[in-house]
C-alpha cells in the first residue's frame, strides 16, 4: 500500500511537471513565431530601404550641376560598387556598406543581375530586392505552401479531379516543389485523347526520325536554340543541359505537325516547359498549347489565329478599360505591336519570372482565356500611369518596358481573376469566330487586288517594264 501510494504521488508530480513543461514549450514556440514574424517584417523593410538606397546612390553619383571630382564622389562610387556585388564569396573588410545578398540566378535559373551595363545592374538589383521584400511580406500570412500540402495530402488515396478548390489554389500559384507534378497532371488532363491514340514510344519514334532524316525546320531550329533564353543558365551556351533537350522536343514536334514544322516562339514555350518537365512531357505540353489551347493557324506562316486574337483583345480592352482604350485611340498608339508577343509566347520575356510562372500555372489548368485576363490585368495595374502620358512616343516607349516594373503577383492575380469579372469563355469564342471571318475576307480581297495587279502588269507593256525598288535591288 505504501509503495502504491508513493507511485501515485510520484505520478501526480511527474504529470504536473509534464504539463508545466508543455505550457513552457508552447509559450516558447509562440514567442519564437512572434520573433520570426518581426524578423521577417524587418528584413522586408530592409530590402525596401536598400532598393531606395541603390537608386539614391546612382542619383548622387551623377549630380546635375557639378563636374568636380570630390572625395564624396569617390565614396559614393565605392558604395555603389559594393552594393552591386551579387553574392560575393568574401566581403572585403573595408567595404563601406555590406549589401543584402542577391543571388546571381533565381530559382528558375534566370540571371537576376546583368553582367555588362551598370545602369541595368542597378535597376535589376533594385527589382530583386523589391521582389524579396514582397516575398517576405507574403510569408508572414498563412502560407500557400501549407494549403497545398493539406490539399495534396487529401488526394493521396484518390485521383485528383478538377474542382473549385484546386482552381483557386492554382490561381494563387503552385509552390516550386510541386510545380513539376502539377504541370504534368494539367497537361495529361488536356491531352489524354491524343496520348491514348498514340503508339507506345511515340515521342522517341518521332525524335529518331528527326535525327535520321532532317526536315526543312531543322536549320531554323538550330539557329534559334541559343537565342531562346540567353539570360537563363540552362540555355546560355551550346553545352548547357537544356539546349539538347530543347532541340529534341522541337525536332520531334516538327515531325508530328509538318503544317507548322517550326515557328519562332515555339522554342520559348518549350524552354519554359523544360524547366519543370522531362522531354516527353514538355513535348506533350507543346502539343497541348498548339493543338488544344490555341486556334488553328496560330503558329503557321500566316499567324492568322494570332492576328484574330489581337482584334478580340482590342474589343475586350475597349469594354473592360474604356478610358485606356480611348487614350490609345486619341494618340493613335498601336499597342498590339507589344501585346502580339504576349499572346504568342504566353508572356515569356515580358514579365518577371515569379509572375510568369504563376501565369503559366493557371494557363496550363484553365487554358487560353488566362492570357486575355492577364493581358488586361497588366494594363489595368498601370492604367493611371499610362493615362498621365500625353504623346504617342512616350506612351509607346513606356509600353515596351512597363510589364517588368510590375512585381506584386498577388495584386496582379487579384485584378486578373477578380476586378475583370465576369469573363465568359463563350464571349471570346464568339468574337474569335466573328474576327476570323473578317480577317479571311480581308486577306481574300488583298489576294484579289494582288492578282489583278499582276495580271494588269503582264498585259500592259509599259507597266511590265516598270520594276519595283525591291525587284531592282534583287
From TrEMBL:
What Gene Ontology cellular component terms go with this record? cytoplasmic vesicle; cytosol
- Gene Ontology MF term list: GTPase activator activity; small GTPase binding
One Pfam family, short name: RabGAP-TBC
Q: Which UniProt keywords apply?
A: Coiled coil, GTPase activation
Coiled coil location: 11-45
Q: Where's the Rab-GAP TBC domain? A: 173-367
Q: Which domain of life is it from?
A: Eukaryota
The protein's name is TBD2B protein
Amino acid at each position: 500500500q505504501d509503495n502504491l501510494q508513493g507511485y501515485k504521488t510520484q505520478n501526480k508530480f511527474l504529470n504536473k511537471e509534464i504539463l508545466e513543461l508543455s505550457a513552457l514549450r508552447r509559450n516558447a514556440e509562440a514567442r519564437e513565431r512572434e520573433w520570426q514574424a518581426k524578423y521577417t517584417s524587418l528584413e522586408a523593410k530592409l530590402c525596401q530601404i536598400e532598393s531606395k538606397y541603390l537608386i539614391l546612390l546612382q542619383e548622387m553619383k551623377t549630380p546635375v550641376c557639378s563636374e568636380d571630382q570630390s572625395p564624396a564622389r569617390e565614396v559614393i562610387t565605392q558604395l555603389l560598387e559594393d552594393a552591386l556585388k551579387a553574392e560575393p564569396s568574401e566581403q572585403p573588410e573595408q567595404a563601406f556598406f555590406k549589401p543584402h545578398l542577391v543571388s546571381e540566378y533565381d530559382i528558375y535559373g534566370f540571371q537576376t543581375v546583368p553582367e555588362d551595363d551598370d545602369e541595368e545592374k542597378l535597376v535589376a538589383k533594385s527589382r530583386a530586392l523589391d521582389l524579396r521584400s514582397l516575398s517576405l511580406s507574403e510569408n508572414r500570412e498563412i502560407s500557400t505552401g501549407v494549403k497545398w500540402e493539406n490539399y495534396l495530402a487529401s488526394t493521396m488515396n484518390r485521383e485528383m479531379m478538377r474542382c473549385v478548390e484546386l482552381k483557386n489554389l492554382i490561381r494563387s500559384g503552385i509552390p516550386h516543389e510541386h510545380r513539376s507534378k502539377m504541370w504534368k497532371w494539367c497537361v495529361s488532363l488536356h491531352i489524354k485523347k491524343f496520348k491514348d491514340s498514340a503508339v507506345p514510344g511515340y515521342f522517341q519514334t518521332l525524335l529518331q526520325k528527326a535525327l535520321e532524316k532532317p526536315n526543312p525546320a531543322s536549320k531554323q531550329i538550330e539557329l534559334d536554340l541559343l537565342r531562346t533564353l540567353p539570360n537563363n543558365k540552362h540555355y546560355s551556351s551550346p553545352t548547357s543541359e537544356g539546349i539538347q533537350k530543347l532541340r529534341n522536343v522541337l525536332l520531334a514536334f516538327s515531325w508530328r505537325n509538318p503544317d507548322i514544322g517550326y515557328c519562332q516562339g515555339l522554342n520559348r514555350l518549350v524552354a519554359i516547359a523544360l524547366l519543370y518537365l522531362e522531354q516527353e512531357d514538355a513535348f506533350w505540353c507543346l502539343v497541348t498549347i498548339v493543338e488544344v489551347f490555341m486556334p488553328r493557324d496560330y503558329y503557321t506562316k500566316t499567324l492568322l489565329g494570332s492576328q484574330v486574337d489581337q482584334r478580340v483583345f482590342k474589343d475586350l480592352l475597349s469594354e473592360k478599360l474604356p478610358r485606356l482604350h480611348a487614350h490609345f485611340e486619341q494618340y493613335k498608339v498601336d499597342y498590339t505591336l507589344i501585346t502580339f508577343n504576349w499572346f504568342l509566347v504566353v508572356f515569356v520575356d515580358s514579365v518577371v519570372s515569379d509572375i510568369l510562372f504563376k501565369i503559366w500555372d493557371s494557363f496550363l489548368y484553365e487554358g487560353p482565356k488566362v492570357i486575355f485576363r492577364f493581358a488586361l490585368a497588366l494594363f489595368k495595374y498601370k492604367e493611371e500611369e499610362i493615362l498621365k502620358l500625353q504623346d504617342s512616343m512616350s506612351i509607346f516607349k513606356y509600353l515596351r518596358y512597363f510589364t517588368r516594373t510590375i512585381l506584386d503577383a498577388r495584386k496582379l492575380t487579384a485584378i486578373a481573376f477578380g476586378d475583370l469579372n465576369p469573363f465568359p469563355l463563350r464571349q471570346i469564342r464568339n468574337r474569335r469566330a466573328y474576327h476570323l471571318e473578317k480577317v479571311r475576307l480581308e486577306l481574300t480581297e488583298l489576294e484579289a487586288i494582288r492578282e489583278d495587279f499582276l495580271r494588269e502588269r503582264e498585259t500592259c507593256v509599259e507597266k511590265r517594264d516598270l520594276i519595283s525598288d525591291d525587284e531592282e535591288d534583287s
